[in-house]
Amino acid sequence: MKTDRRRFLLAAGALAVLAASPARAAAAELELQQPGTLRVAVYANFAPWSTAGKGIDIALGRALAERLGLQPQVVEFPADENMNDDLRNMVWRGHYLGHKPGDVMLHVPVDPRFAALNKQVKIFGPYHLETIALARLPERVPAPGGSADASFAVFEQERIGAELDSHASDFLRHILGGRLQPNVAHFRNVGEAVAAMKRGEIAAVMGARSELETAIGGDAAIALDTLSMPELRVASWPLGMAVKAEHSGLEQALSGAIAELQRSGELGRIFAAHGVRQRTP
Q1: Angle separating helix axes 56-67 and 266-273, nearest 10 degrees
Q2: CA distances from 52 to 45, 56, 138, 176, 247 (A)
Q3: Pairing of β 236-244 and β 104-109
Q4: Domain 14-128+238-273, what fold?
Q5: Structural fold of domain 130-226
Q6: Residue 55 neighbours by CB distance under 10 Å
Q7: What is the mean pLDDT of each run of 10 residues along the chain (281 residues)?
Q8: Statement: the pTM of the whole predicted model exceeds 0.85
């Protein structure tokens, strides 16, 4: 369920440079639903990325619009059954309830196999490398290392949390011959799982590192480890954006804007403001 934005390098005398930037000069030529406005589609109820008008993706969408000399219009969409449906609803057709799609969608996995299944859109502009991680109480759970058998055998005694219907949940239910299932606790989101760990109800939480970083909030009593093991087939994925396949002008403009945000350091500052360290893909 759930898959962002970039910023521009400003030199001294930024206002003059910005006013004359090629991205702004070409804004009138971009393929937009409403001239002068960039409609940015993000996921709803998805902290720290986008929830109730705040989050990394929302800030990034606004920054991208600014770099292109456009007014931002950020729209939060509910996630559908899968990401193919999300791209249909949020990029190339619109929702069956009548909601218009965005000009660009953020938080899209940049993966050639996934892109090949969605030829109606162009996926590009990776701005963050998401990883799977384990948050744990170190006095109860040792640092992971080696195989899943070695790293997760402790959860035959200790309880571990995961978001319901997530990659982490599926992984935990199937490793070690399914023996961990009785000790896997499911939560509506990673934030609720981490809150339960802080209360001592569970000993660890598995999930996306960005969500764990925000939920932990710098709590020194919790250790956070990125996971890498043979059994974990998908341990990381770059997050990017998507536009309609035929909108090459908008794709090029957004690619330039995200590169500028990266070079200027503004992209990293957006992430840091939400308690997440930006990782370049």
Answers
A1: 150
A2: 7, 12, 34, 39, 29
A3: antiparallel
A4: D-Maltodextrin-Binding Protein; domain 2 (3.40.190)
A5: D-Maltodextrin-Binding Protein; domain 2 (3.40.190)
A6: 23
A7: 30 32 58 94 96 97 97 94 92 82 97 96 98 98 93 97 95 95 97 98 98 96 95 94 97 97 98 97 91
A8: yes
